[in-house]
Design a protein that fits this description.
Layout: H1 7-25, H2 33-43, H3 61-73, H4 80-93, H5 97-104, E1 110-114, E2 128-131, E3 138-145, E4 148-154, E5 159-160, E6 169-172, E7 181-187, H6 189-225, H7 231-264, H8 267-295, H9 306-319, H10 324-339
Parallel strand pairs: 1-3
Antiparallel strand pairs: 1-2, 2-6, 3-4, 4-7, 5-6
Family: Belongs to the acyl-CoA dehydrogenase family.
Organism: Mycobacterium paraffinicum
InterPro entries: AcylCo_DH-like_C, AcylCo_DH/oxidase_C, AcylCoA_DH/ox_N_sf, AcylCoA_DH/oxidase_NM_dom_sf
Length: 342
């Protein structure tokens, strides 16, 4: 199937790439850059990409995936995934219009709470991990009652030291119902399934970006070393890179289908496509990034070089909302349930 981006999508991709390049080149240790980075996201409309009432286009998972990939490619220390995508999807599902408008214009910063093992969204009545919290003033958490989800703003906890140096994590202690501020309306099970699908797609998009960045660096390294390397070694590297390219494009194909499906297919079908995209990207991400590390001979993991930042980010992305082993099991369960006679 031939899939091509529209001119408008290509322009968005180019704009996101420029902003991501500027952020990647900035001083990561300068804490004052956090708000400036966020302002650049707001300027190109990232928090409003899936909010048709607040942007000039229909809500689109494809545009969202395109933008996330560009920031993942350059391992940018900016909370695109948590605050610009997941938080806004939660608010939109709860029809929290006032909060959505504030997030879209950059004046409200909310980060989502995940479960302790990062496999799903957290609940405010039990401890969790707040994800992508750089610059956030409050956290968003949920609770379930009779299959419906309620959304609430909860206080933030202390900072956590995580493997991924490009994202900030905080503790999210459990709260009693009286200590939280409810937001919007209860979220139906069907709408919640789309929220979870968007979460899987977002994590997969970041993985695709990380893979593409690693592949680009490895190709450049082989190109520069070709003259001084033995023919056999160079040929072996080229075969490895060709396989990595195949894996990256396969992951991107699954991602774009899932991103399209979130807006055009039934919730169950969209969720199945999202699980498939996350499974493929999680498995390919590990192999592609590790291959790039081997080719560039940067196998010691530190916290400074871009290749090492990619390894750390890839490992966290794999964990987010479940790696391939969890997704494959869920896909099998879903498929078998569909095949059972009525």
């Amino acid at each position: 199937m031939n899939v091509e981006l529209t001119n408008e999508q290509l322009q968005l991709q180019s704009a996101a790439a420029r902003v991501a390049a500027n952020i990647a080149a900035a001083d990561r240790s300068d804490g004052s850059n956090v708000d400036r980075f966020w302002d650049q996201l707001v300027d190109i409309g990232v928090p409003a990409l899936r909010l048709p009432a607040l942007c000039d286009k229909v809500a689109s998972g494809v545009e969202t995936a395109i933008v996330i990939e560009q920031f993942g490619k350059r391992v940018c220390p900016v909370p695109v995934l948590g605050q610009a995508v997941l938080a806004t999807e939660l608010l939109d599902a709860a029809e929290a219009r006032q909060e959505l408008a504030l997030v879209a214009d950059g004046s409200l910063r909310l980060a989502p709470v995940l479960s302790p093992n990062l496999s799903g969204f957290g609940s405010w009545d039990s401890p969790g991990v707040a994800f992508d919290t750089a610059g956030a003033t409050h956290l968003l958490s949920t609770a379930t009652s009779d299959g419906w989800r309620s959304l609430a703003r909860v206080p933030s906890g202390g900072t956590l030291i995580g493997l991924d140096r490009t994202r900030e994590l905080r503790t999210a202690p459990g709260h009693a119902d009286s200590d939280v501020t409810l937001i919007g309306k209860p979220i139906s099970p069907r709408r919640w399934q789309r929220v979870e699908a968007v979460a899987l797609i977002a994590a997969a998009a970041d993985l695709v970006g990380v893979m593409q960045g690693a592949l680009d660096d490895a190709v450049q390294h082989v190109r520069e070393c070709r003259q001084s390397s033995m023919l056999g070694t160079s040929t072996a590297n080229e075969y490895s890179l060709a396989d990595s390219l195949f894996r990256v494009e396969g992951a991107r194909s699954c991602l774009w289908h899932a991103a399209w499906a979130i807006d055009h297919l039934a919730a169950e079908e969209a969720f199945l496509a999202a699980m498939t995209a996350k499974a493929y990207a999680s498995e390919a991400g590990r192999d592609v990034v590790e291959t790039a590390m081997e080719i560039t001979a940067e196998q010691a993991i530190s916290g400074k070089r871009a290749s090492h930042l990619r390894v750390r980010r890839m490992l966290l992305d794999r964990r987010l909302f479940g790696d391939e082993s969890i997704q494959y099991e869920s896909i099998a369960t879903t498929r078998l349930a569909c095949d059972e006679p009525a």
